[in-house]
TrEMBL record, chains A, B:
<protein>
    <submittedName>
        <fullName>Cupin domain protein</fullName>
    </submittedName>
</protein>
<dbReference type="InterPro" id="IPR047263">
    <property type="entry name" value="HNL-like_cupin"/>
</dbReference>
<dbReference type="InterPro" id="IPR011051">
    <property type="entry name" value="RmlC_Cupin_sf"/>
</dbReference>
<dbReference type="InterPro" id="IPR013096">
    <property type="entry name" value="Cupin_2"/>
</dbReference>
<dbReference type="Pfam" id="PF07883">
    <property type="entry name" value="Cupin_2"/>
</dbReference>
<feature type="domain" description="Cupin type-2">
    <location>
        <begin position="75"/>
        <end position="136"/>
    </location>
</feature>
<dbReference type="InterPro" id="IPR014710">
    <property type="entry name" value="RmlC-like_jellyroll"/>
</dbReference>
């Protein structure tokens, strides 16, 4: 509004750009029809080795911004792959969309994840997630209220931790 | 913490309950393995006729709470079904997981939605979404920052609006 009041010509330019973009919607990703039976989202980029063990693919669906403050991404863990231990200052929601995997909080037994499961990791709770040794895991990950921070990355999940029956 | 300081016996009870529940994770939904090719989430309940035209199924994945302030749900629109016009004070993220449908903002042409599309409806922008006349649409809907409100429901989308080429 500051621009609208003080710089009318620039404001007209911004308005024209908005109209050219088709209004205020932000279509973050639109690629036309995808095969009915294939993955919902593309694999994206390799997750950084500093934060993951094994092969992990990460696709950003909604980047961090000051309007939504809600980072959303798709993550594919190939069999045996997992995140490092980490925590989210404002918590994290996981929606399991395919495969099976593990979710574990510090000091707690591993939980087995299946397609359709929903996990809420509470703010600040140290945890990891990943595939089972023989099956891939795909989940959507949502971090709300990112004004508090997105993630604090910690040490890798050791093979002993990963293969433990607990 | 107030309880811990003043009511130790009750606090022990709460602690025991938390331990029995397996710690601080909130597994909102876990139902064991689901068929690899079927829908990710169950259909849930019929969406209220006051807010929708046609047959719509809504499953709550994450209810509103003061920790996440991020309502998440799965919505299935059967062919021809659509939401009323509505707006979200803090905006909405749609993740299209199956089928095809429409998304339209007031005064803008309809956009066709496909599996894998991501839409960000900006705060306060009047819009509707739904299936195409011949194909169902399934999407995850995320409303962040619900302290500002979740949704303001408006008038139905008329057949004229729905079947318009614009």
């Amino acid at each position: 509004m500051h621009i609208l009041l003080t710089r009318p010509l620039q404001a007209l330019g911004v308005l024209a750009l908005l109209l050219a973009l088709g209004g205020s919607t932000q279509v973050v990703r639109s690629r036309g029809p995808r095969p009915a039976q294939g993955p919902i989202f593309p694999k994206g980029q390799r997750g950084p080795a500093a934060n993951f063990t094994g092969t992990v693919w990460v696709t950003s669906l909604v980047a961090d911004d000051s309007t939504f403050q809600c980072v959303t991404g798709n993550v594919v863990f190939e069999p045996g792959a997992r995140s490092n231990w980490h925590r989210h200052p404002s918590g994290q929601i996981l929606l399991v969309t395919d495969g099976s995997g593990y979710y574990q909080e510090k000091g707690q037994p591993k939980r087995i994840l299946h397609k359709g499961d929903v996990i809420k990791a509470l703010p600040g709770v140290e945890h990891w997630h990943g595939a089972t040794p023989k099956q891939a895991l795909t989940h959507v990950a949502i971090v709300p209220n990112t004004e508090k921070g997105v993630a604090v990355w910690l040490q890798p999940v050791t093979d002993q931790e990963y293969y433990s029956l607990k």
